[in-house]
Design goal:
Elements (H helix, E strand, L loop, with lengths): L4 E6 L3 H13 L4 E6 L6 E2 L4 H6 L8 E3 L1 H6 L3 E3 L4 E5 L4 E4 L4 E3 L2 E4 L3 E3 L12 E3 L3 H13 L2 E5 L3 H12 L3 E6 L11 H13 L3 E4 L3 E5 L6 E4 L4 E3 L2 E4 L3 E3 L2 H5 L8 E3 L10 E3 L4 E3 L7 H16 L12 E6 L2 E7 L8 E7 L4 E8 L2 E8 L5 H10 L7 H6 L12 H7 L5 E3 L4 E2 H11 L4 H8 L9 H12 L19 H11 L4 H7 L11 H12 L13 H5 L2 E2 L5 E3 L10 H13 L4 E4 L5 E6 L4 H8 L11 E6 L13 H12 L8 E6 L13 E6 L2 E6 L11 E6 L2 H18 L6 H8 L1 H8 L2 H17 L3 H7 L1 H4 L4 H6 L4
Parallel strand pairs: 1-2, 1-9, 2-5, 9-21, 11-18, 12-13, 12-18, 13-14, 20-22, 34-35, 35-36
Antiparallel strand pairs: 3-4, 6-7, 7-8, 10-19, 15-16, 16-17, 23-24, 24-27, 25-26, 26-27, 28-29, 30-31, 31-33, 32-33, 36-37, 37-38
């Protein structure tokens, strides 16, 4: 009889998954693990959502454990399918879709939700919180249509949302109930300094304001305050705090206060059920910072793995963050009271503020603004409770109280730092973990430490202290600082990888990793898809695509939606269809109860809400090519009417668009590619904000490249003007192949053109022999490709991946 127990995790977030990671290390075969998540995404770093919103990071970049990780660890996962019932007597959970899973051990990690103020009008369209990827997507979409945004809440979360909305081009006003920003983390002088800095960046502030009502018919139009003043706005983001999600726990009979009540070993009042993370309440406190939640997860993992552990005794918290490019740190009791003394310095010229709060000779709190270098050492003093009498100025200023000599060196500060000091708050990495990586695992570079421990892999704010610890532990054995590669698994960048693959004749993802000495034998979600692309681009006549190295959408050739269903977008060449084709699409949509059929911005029809097991049947009955709406490939070729009907048209844009799309319809690329053809300079097809746009003029065609109509709008630049249709095709194919062969994985043409420069591309393509050689290579590649929908329809082994059983077991893959 198997001794493996069943472990169910309710919640697919950071705290729960960190617990699972520890269990897998401590007792890799002890549990058969099942995970239910409310969101249709793998485990991602919620702390980095503001970077996604600001446009500097993609959703893929903030994924901590990708879908491959779940598969490799034999974890059954149900994304977008939250648990709705727990039967503690039968030890069984039931999900929203009806999946039942029994358990021996159950971990509640349901996290928290954004607190929405119970104001009149709070249910109107355009009023949201800022808590997950969906909120980011809502804000991004709003920025495309609306201009004014209001953020209620002047804490960290509110300021991060405001910064992102500014980057999206919106006019942003932050409303805060108190007199200075981030008053839970900063005192008045630091708060005012932060406000000045953010005002210079374009933010507006209304302080000491109480919102009374959100007005508007269906969508928000304005905010009315208690002083009867009004602020017009098109979007309201509430960032006023979080609320532990405990309703499921309460219904199951768990003891609940603000959060699910747990003891020092994360036990609840019902045997076999534990709680961890933002939903848990320990000794009256529900923590909202990641470091304490990771500490809880370690204790829980050790207990479940049967390892010896001391109980969790609570956390002294500190906050070190970068708010819109400004470094801030606070810890402990940083506000003055009658029984405290303070020492502070304020430099308005350089934007630096430092303050220590002392009670009975002990440091009990600190605030740093602009220069947070000493944050870790101050936090250590707060936690240790040692007497610092007579050393106050030395600690804050680095100058001994005697008035001469230097303060403690970096080496001395690193040596005196406690081993359990968390030096990377985003990922809960301690000083001891860094020491173990350097001394026992051979990590003697920053990149190696990042790969091994995840320290500095998120916001990067801890990089200086990680480098100091590396020097402290490795001494003269610190490795040469190497440039970062395509990911933490390797030091090779894109160009070096391509050169090595060509020179050494490497023909598979695994071979590249083995020969080139990957740090992680199986790679990660960044390098596997990129290697798969580079190999296919280089060995275009022989390389076989590796399905396991692709993202979920590209594995199943359909876009996964937030509820776990998929969308189907068939190819409609040039946006031109027929009555028979429309009737066929409508008939199929009715037959399979497709909840929504929508016209896309690229002149196509999107069938939304399709069940996974129905995908092959719908593809077969449609009998249309895949529109690749899910992939890094040619998406659409948008066209206007052109001279076929339009009285302004100078060329046949429809015919040109169809020709280009039919020739390129299975072209994969480093990133998605969108084309457009306009029949005259009025540009109804929006060709000048596409990756490649063809614009008709009298007797000729203009080719514009490097445009983007997304979050970061970029106007395309003129590549060339040609006279014939054949020249349009030649330059288009040559340009796209040159991009395919030279861009980095996941790099859109807009970013690529900005990096290499249009003149570089013009020079590269000016020789016709070079262009023809590029065209030949692209045609050879396209000649080998098959339509993925047709391939799956005709291959019984591939169709098995879409059966109801496979869907239930591998909903994430």
């Amino acid at each position: 009889m198997s001794s493996t127990k069943k472990l169910v995790l309710v919640g697919n977030g950071m705290a729960g998954l960190r617990t699972i990671e520890h269990i897998l290390k401590l007792a890799p075969h002890a549990y058969e693990i099942t995970i239910f998540g409310a969101e249709p995404h793998p485990n991602y770093n919620r702390i980095m959502l503001s970077s996604v919103l600001a446009g500097g990071t993609s959703i893929e970049d903030i994924v901590i454990n990708d879908w491959n990780w779940y598969e490799e660890n034999n974890i059954r996962v149900y994304p977008g399918d939250p648990v709705v019932q727990i039967d503690a007597e039968r030890k069984e959970v039931v999900s929203e879709s009806g999946v039942r899973a029994s358990y021996d051990e159950l971990i509640m990690a349901t996290g928290s939700s954004a607190f929405i103020l119970p104001l009149p009008g709070a249910n109107k369209e355009g009023v949201i919180g800022f808590r997950d990827i969906k909120d980011c997507e809502t804000m991004m979409a709003a920025s495309q249509k609306y201009r004014k945004a209001a953020v209620i809440g002047g804490g960290l979360l509110g300021l991060e949302a405001a910064r992102g909305l500014l980057n999206l081009g919106m006019d942003v006003t932050v409303i805060h109930i108190n007199g200075h920003l981030m008053d839970r983390n900063l005192d008045l002088p630091a708060g005012l300094m932060l406000q000045r800095e953010l005002e210079e960046q374009g933010m507006k502030f209304l302080l000491n304001k109480h919102t009374e009502e959100i007005t508007g018919k269906n969508r928000v139009k304005s905010l009315r305050f208690t002083d009867q003043t009004v602020l017009e706005t098109d979007l309201v983001v509430m960032a006023v705090g979080i609320r532990p999600q405990v309703e499921l726990a309460r219904q199951a009979g768990l003891d609940v206060n603000r959060g699910v009540i747990v003891d020092d070993y994360m036990n609840t009042n019902i045997p076999g059920i534990s709680a961890v993370g933002e939903c848990a309440e320990h000794r009256g406190i529900a923590y909202g910072l990641v470091a304490p939640l990771y500490e809880q997860g370690m204790v829980l993992a050790k207990r479940l793995a049967g390892a010896a552990t001391e109980g969790y005794e609570g956390s002294v918290t500190s906050t070190k963050l970068k708010v819109s490019g400004v470094d801030v740190f606070s810890a402990g009791q940083f506000k003055d009271s009658p029984d405290t003394r303070s020492i502070r310095i304020q430099d308005d010229v350089d934007g630096v503020y430092k303050k220590m709060v002392i009670r009975e000779g002990k440091l009990i709190g600190a605030v740093l603004f602009g220069d947070t270098t000493d944050g870790a050492s101050l936090f250590s003093l707060i936690k240790s409770g040692e007497d610092i009498s007579g050393r106050e100025k030395e600690i804050l200023l680095g100058v001994p109280s005697g008035g001469s000599g230097a303060g403690p060196s970096v080496a001395e500060r690193m040596a005196s730092m406690p081993d359990d000091e968390i030096v990377c708050g985003c990922n809960g990495v301690t000083k001891a973990t860094i020491g173990d990586a350097v001394l026992n695992k051979g990590c003697n570079t920053l990149g190696a430490i990042k790969s091994c421990t995840k320290a500095s892999a998120s916001c990067g704010g801890c990089k200086p202290i990680i480098e100091s610890l590396l020097t402290h532990y490795a001494g003269d054995n610190v490795g040469e600082q190497v440039k970062e590669g395509i990911c933490g698994c390797t030091s090779y960048d894109r160009d070096e990888l391509v050169a090595q693959i060509k020179e050494m004749g490497l023909k598979s993802v695994k071979e590249v990793m083995n020969v080139l000495g990957w740090n992680e034998p199986e790679g990660c979600s960044k390098c596997r898809p990129s290697l798969n692309y580079y190999l296919g681009m280089i060995w275009h006549t022989e390389y076989e695509d590796e399905r396991v190295s692709k993202f979920t959408n590209e594995r199943y050739h359909a876009n996964i939606q937030k509820d776990g269903t998929y969308s189907v977008i068939p190819r409609i060449y040039g946006g031109v269809t027929s009555p028979a084709e429309l009737i066929k699409i409508a008939t199929i949509a009715e037959k399979y109860d497709v909840p929504m059929v929508k016209f896309t911005g690229g002149q196509r029809l999107d069938l939304l809400g399709v069940q996974k097991e129905n995908l092959p049947k719908i593809w077969e009955e449609l009998d249309m090519p895949s529109g690749f709406g899910y992939g890094k490939a040619l998406r659409t070729v948008k066209t206007c009417v052109g001279n076929t009907f339009c009285r302004f048209g100078t060329q046949d844009s429809i015919e040109m668009g169809i020709r280009l799309e039919k020739k390129l319809d299975k072209m994969v690329a480093p990133a998605k590619v969108k084309l457009a053809v306009s029949g005259c300079p009025r540009n109804c097809a929006e060709a000048t904000i596409k990756d490649l746009g063809v614009v008709a003029i009298d007797g000729a065609w203009e080719l514009h490249v490097g445009g983007n109509g997304g979050v970061k709008v970029r106007a395309a630049e003129l590549l060339c003007t040609v006279k014939t249709d054949a020249e349009v095709e030649e330059w288009t194919y040559a340009y796209l192949q040159y991009y395919r062969e030279n861009a980095r994985w996941n790099e859109r043409t807009a970013a690529w053109i900005e990096r290499v420069g249009l003149d570089h591309v013009k020079t590269a393509l000016e020789d016709r022999d070079v262009r023809l050689a590029l065209v030949e290579r692209l045609e050879a590649t396209l000649g080998r490709t098959v339509d993925p929908w047709k391939e799956i329809i005709e291959d019984e082994n591939l169709r098995k991946n879409f059966t109801p059983l496979a869907s239930a077991q591998n909903a994430a893959h």
